[in-house]
Specification:
Length: about 250
Amino acid sequence: MPPPRSPDVPTLAALRRLTDRTGAGSEPADTRTLPFGVPGLDAALPGGGLGLGALHQIHEGGPRGRYAATAVLFAGGILARLDGPVLWCLHSRDLFAPALARVGLHPDRVVYCETWRDAEVLPAMEEGLRHRGLAGVVGELTRMTLTPSRRLQLAAEGSGVTALVVHRLCAGSAEEPEPSAARTRWRVAPAPSEGTNRRMGRPRWRLDLQRCRGGAPGAWIVEACDAQGRLAVPAVLADRPAAPERVQHRAAG
């Protein structure tokens, strides 16, 4: 009887690499993150920031949801702090380039793709995510089902390019996006800001992290992205002492 064959070491090593990438429950290979600089917010996200090379959803509820102006600025501020050009798949011709410049994303960095329907936006995003030289790909969608979101997530993981979906939700038709394979889902809305001497203060947003794979949902009031795309904690909130714990007393029976 011939002696047993020794294991094929190169084959086993290749198999381990394959299972590391595709095994059930394994973490994505790209573990880079982009911190927001807001301590409570970063602490809620795995790795201390927004995961790069992944798909993220952003929407703005209420009557302004169709235009998603605040959601667009939030996406622009994220991409402003990444290097490289941005592919932006449009839903209509209402993207205001000077507003993107105010949150740090200069129009010269943006490649505009005129895709007016969801059926055109999704394949354009997927094609863009194959180009590793991009800082990110943005798609404006009215809805995104589970299967297309999985394709976008896999494409983002494969290239390391970050994908952002900005939802344009019509008031009354859908209050929240459908479930998807996105790493995070955000709801952004304007919040009251403070002004002094008849001058408006820095705009404020309410950020709701509604879903986060491996993280903790939460809500924060932040100052809107500045010219470098950075959020900030309002000074009045940063200096506020922690609220005292409430002690509940039961009435004696």
